[in-house]
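ok here's FMN-binding domain-containing protein:
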Amino acid sequence: MKFKQVYILLLVVVMCSFGLPKNIQKRVDAAIKDTFNIETFHFTNVRIPDADTKDLPSQFGEDNLFKITVDDMLLGYAYVAKAPSKTAQFDYLVLLDKDLIVLKSKVLIYREEYGGEIGSKRWLKQFIGKKEGDDLKYGDNIVAISGATISVRSMTNAMNNLLQSLKILHSKNIL
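and the structure:
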């Protein structure tokens, strides 16, 4: 009897340990509802075999690429990751449609005193419509922000890495 209780407790702990932290999940959910203009949806992990992630510029784990579905119909994908700023990291979200085109990018949590301007909708909207194979260049097709150079370069690199990774995953028929 005691073994069964321990097993159930372990199962509950394991089940609760997966997924995004609650503060990030709330922000992701709000962005999905706003972007896709929906109230209810399913949010499930996309599992990519380790062998297929070795050569990708972006990191893909169990808790950063998700399918967004409604009634078993694929609406798109959500990618949640961290990028470096001057002394810390910031969390960001990229929402993609079912054809892997960027619908929205959002800085979820910024942990620096300076450079938080990269979280502005005005600056982030320049990523909308970008797709696999697009090349983003700081100061060329990505606008610089005075006082946020490191964060702007970091977000630009993160988006480039994601777009390149999506191209590879799409070519392997994983996405």
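+1. The chain has five helices and five strands.
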